[in-house]
Amino acid sequence: MPDAAILSTWGLPGLFLVAMLAGSVVPVPSEALLAALIYGGTPPMLATAVATVGNVLGALSLYVLGLWVARGGGGPLGRWYARRRASEGPRMQKVEARLRTWGAPALVMSWVPIIGDAFVIAGGVVGVKPLPFVVFVTLGKGLRYVFVALSTAASL
């Protein structure tokens, strides 16, 4: 993966793409690119909005995977999820239990590294409705990007 300085030449479309990949299962440095663009003069709130929308769209791909697996979907993605659930065992079961207990508001935790993806996939598996899913995932991921943007802007 190129460094943030190279990615920053892609501008907001590059941020959108990187954030969308980061919202799925691809580990890319969307926060570093957000900071690089703000350092380069991009308005912080515009960059934050672009990153948030891209990241939420990436998360929707995991949500759809969770819905598909919950309905008995197979194929390579279903097998991938089954392997991930087996390897993470208790963690995935804990996340699913929390979602069943707390419902969609627990998806605010989708911003947390590593377990955030588990929350997003589990949202689909346990059947969280699409609108609450989008609202709470956007809140969680958006707050993370707001924090990065404000921290970056404060350091200028």
Residue fraction in strands: under 5%
**How many structural domains does the protein architecture include?**
1
Bulk shape: elongated
How many strand elements? 0
The span between the termini is 26 Å
> What's the overall average pLDDT, rounded?
86
Rounded radius of gyration (Å): 16 Å
Helical stretch tally: 8
Helix content: over 70%
Relevant terms:
VTT_dom; membrane; 76% helix; transmembrane helix; DedA_domain
Walkthrough of the structure:
Residues 28-151 form the VTT domain. This is DedA family protein. The chain crosses the membrane at residues 45-70, 102-127, 133-154. It comes from Myxococcus llanfairpwllgwyngyllgogerychwyrndrobwllllantysiliogogogochensis. The chain is an all-alpha fold and 156 residues long. It has one domain. Helices cover 76% and strands 0% of the residues. It contains eight helices and no strands. Helix 2 runs parallel beside helix 4 (44-70). It starts with a helix and ends with a helix. The model has no long low-confidence stretch (mean pLDDT 86).
